[in-house]
Write a structure and sequence with these properties.
Blueprint lengths: L1 E6 L6 H13 L2 E7 L10 H11 L6 E6 L3 H7 L4 E6 L2 H17 L4 E6 L9 H9 L10 H13 L4
Parallel strand pairs: 1-2, 1-4, 2-3, 4-5
Amino acid sequence: MNAIYPGTFDPVTNGHVDIAERSAKIFNQLIIAVIKSPNKKTLFNCDERIEMITKSINHIKNVKVMKYSGLTVNFAKKTNSEVIVRGLRITSDFEYESEMALVNRRMEKSIETVCLFSSLENQILSSSRVKEIASLGANISTLVPKNVCIPLLTKLKNHDYK
């Protein structure tokens, strides 16, 4: 069975990598699906996000990274994926993810959504929070993969993020 793990990944965090590693043990193939044109403004462009994710997950053999645009269920069908993987952090994620799963199910009944609970150390970790912490000068080395620290700090230095 194949799955996609969609998201913005702006930037990829250790929480994302954890969900990818655990999902890769469940599914034959996992595609990390990076949304090309999200509704929100991103700090990194799609190619930069793909490069960071690819370097962060290169130790996982049955995972690949692809960009997509449009409906997630359509991308799942296009890649012969039967499952959409989502990570759940704190309780507020549940409401959003359950609504999204129901909408996706209504559009495409053959696609299931599977939610994995974030590991305890990643429960409060999000890309937005990482960017905020980094912009305030705090150490982010335990929050993101090593290959993400310098590009993130450089990008924040060159942009007005707050």
